[in-house]
Design a protein that fits this description.
Order of helices and strands: HHHHHHH
Shape: flat
Low-confidence stretches: 5-20, 25-36
Structural class: mainly alpha
Radius of gyration: 35 Å
Largest sheet: none
Number of strands: 0
Helix content: 55-70%
Distance between the termini: 91 Å
């Protein structure tokens, strides 16, 4: 019979590292090391580092200044989002995958309409020249350009219809509105188009 001395406790058995389960050891190390929680996201970590929010404004002038800064920041974010084609920032006329497809069709080809401003400027300058021959040539150039513009617009309209029907055959499209949307975009200089082109010249939508 085993006697137990007063005031003495049996020592708890020490777990043998060689016989323990590696998974249990790993979980124990994670708990003791303070790592037993998911890694915080980058945005959450940045938010913690920013510290507490700024104190409320004490004067009306300071409050008005902060309001203008916030409005300017929102406008800048809206412009950047719309320029890169984010639907949440675009106006209603530019939203949706169909409108995005029309823009890609226009931006992927060379359009006669993109020369409209340059040709119109040359023709306008020619009307101020006192020479009748120069005025006649300017009128002829402007008329010939409009003929080419009409032909190119017809070709572009057909391409828009074919591409939209092939990509979205099960939807009810307002083709006149889509064609006009594409033609109006084609009359703008490429670098001035908004939203900005997302495809290169020669690429197929």
């Amino acid at each position: 019979m085993k006697l137990r001395l007063p005031g003495r406790r049996d020592a708890a058995p020490t777990p043998d590292a060689s016989s323990a389960d590696p998974g249990e050891l790993t979980s124990e190390l994670l708990k003791t090391g303070g790592k037993g929680r998911p890694t915080p996201r980058r945005s959450e970590a940045q938010g913690r580092r920013q510290g507490p929010p700024p104190p409320p404004p004490t004067t009306r002038k300071e409050a008005y200044k902060r309001m203008r800064e916030q409005q300017a920041l929102r406008r800048a974010e809206t412009r950047q989002g719309a320029a890169r084609g984010d639907d949440s920032f675009l106006p209603a006329r530019d939203r949706g995958p169909v409108r995005k497809l029309v823009r890609d069709v226009v931006d992927g080809r060379r359009n006669i309409g993109s020369l409209f401003l340059a040709v119109a400027a040359v023709a306008l300058i020619g009307t101020f020249v006192p020479s009748l021959a120069v005025k006649a040539y300017s009128s002829f150039v402007l008329f010939g350009f409009f003929v080419l513009l009409v032909i190119d617009s017809v070709v572009l309209g057909r391409k828009i219809k074919q591409t939209v029907l092939a990509r979205f055959p099960d939807q009810d499209h307002r083709m006149k509105g889509l064609v006009w949307y594409g033609i109006s975009r084609s009359t703008m200089i490429r670098r001035w188009r908004f939203p900005k082109p997302e495809v290169s010249l020669g690429s197929k939508a």
